[in-house]
Write a structure and sequence with these properties.
Elements: E1 7-12, H1 16-27, E2 32-37, H2 41-50, E3 69-70, H3 73-78, E4 82-85, H4 92-95, E5 108-111, E6 116-117, E7 122-123, H5 124-132, E8 139-143, H6 148-152, E9 157-162, H7 166-176, E10 181-186, H8 189-212, H9 216-237, H10 247-258, H11 263-272, H12 277-284, H13 289-304, H14 309-319, H15 324-332
Helix pairs in contact: 8-9, 8-10, 8-11, 8-13, 8-14, 11-12, 13-14, 14-15
């Protein structure tokens, strides 16, 4: 059970979303000590010296004690009772390299990752349970809608905290709440994790269509079909009572599909305009989770024999090198 009066929190990751979470935690009114794992030693030195992340959200002032910032993940995790994972899903294993199950014993582990671990093809909660023997009741999942860039500007945003244990979700949520962060509690751990994975694929689909020249009218139909497809998927894998129209599902989908800050939409837009996957990745210099998620979700679709036309379109374009124009034309005939 978390005691918020003396929480020590580790944030694992140093990208824009991790930097935004550092800001949220330091701006929250609850007293806590924050530790930050930053991948590159040279970035650690820079942040300690200048109190800014040189690579992401550089305008954000970092209010973490310099001695609490390190590139030694074991040192950071060992000092904390709450560990917040905030790397791209594809890089989580390398970030946690060297850690074993005993390093997480009795700790609450929070996933702010919106992707699937590629080799294992598992959502983060499943990976944590199988790899590190972390009990389900000690895992909290954070859902959106919330873009790092708007957190940096202190624009009112909402986060959903999902756990099988209501107390755990409430305790973690309280650590993030502030005048510009409102929190919502849920018990749909698996549904919110999969929803966060799928919305990146759907945002990528929206970007592809935009790059091809489709307008707002078509995008509205695409996203309305996407939320039904998401509902069908999460109900097939994790049946329980949920309202797919709430912010953790529909809200997160909408902001990722439409926002100027959405890297998945940007990535898809480049693909629609004719970029290769490799050239789009190089030009963005940021991870679009939807790219990796597409292959992982396709495997799940095949295993459970699900009908997911939007996800299938994205997979065909990204991995089977099919014509984006031809695939979207076929998809459009399927819409209702």
């Amino acid at each position: 059970m978390i005691d918020n009066s003396k929480s020590k929190i580790a944030v694992i990751g140093s990208g824009s979303w991790a930097t935004a979470m550092i800001k949220m935690l330091t701006d929250s009114t609850l007293s806590k000590e924050i530790f930050w794992w930053v991948r590159k030693p040279e970035d650690v030195t820079f942040i300690r010296t200048y109190k800014h992340n040189p690579s992401y959200l550089s305008a954000v002032e970092v209010k973490v004690q310099p001695e609490n910032i390190s590139s030694d993940v074991r040192e950071i995790v060992s000092q904390c009772d709450i560990v917040v994972l905030n790397t791209p899903a594809a890089y989580l294993k390398s970030a946690l390299e060297g850690l074993i199950a005993s390093d997480f014993k009795d700790k609450t582990v929070v996933s702010a990752i919106k992707g699937i671990i590629p080799d294992e093809n598992q959502i983060v909660g499943e990976y944590l349970r199988s790899q590190y023997d972390i009990p389900l009741e000690k895992i909290v999942v954070i859902g959106g809608p919330c873009h790092a860039e708007e957190v940096a500007q202190e624009k009112l945003s909402y986060l959903t905290f999902a756990s099988s244990t209501k107390h755990e979700a409430n305790a973690v949520a309280a650590l993030f709440a502030s005048r510009y962060i409102n929190t919502i509690i849920s018990d749909d751990v698996i549904g919110i994790e999969y929803g966060a994975v799928l919305k990146n694929i759907y945002a990528l689909a929206g970007g592809i269509c935009h790059g091809l020249g489709y307008g707002d009218n078509f995008q509205a139909v695409l996203i309305s079909n996407a939320i039904r497809e998401m509902d069908y998927f999460v109900e097939a894998l994790a049946p329980q009572h949920r309202d797919i129209k709430t912010s953790a599902y529909l809200g997160d989908l909408l902001v990722t599909a439409y926002s100027q800050f959405s890297r998945n939409r940007t990535f898809g837009n480049m693909i629609g305009k004719g970029y290769t996957v490799q050239s789009a990745q190089l030009e963005m210099n940021m991870v679009a989770e939807g790219y990796y998620a597409s292959a992982c979700i396709q495997s799940v679709i095949q295993r459970f024999e699900l009908r997911m036309p939007i996800c299938n379109m994205v997979f065909q374009v990204l991995y089977n090198h099919q014509s984006a124009s031809a695939e979207v034309t076929k998809l459009a005939k399927d819409f209702t």
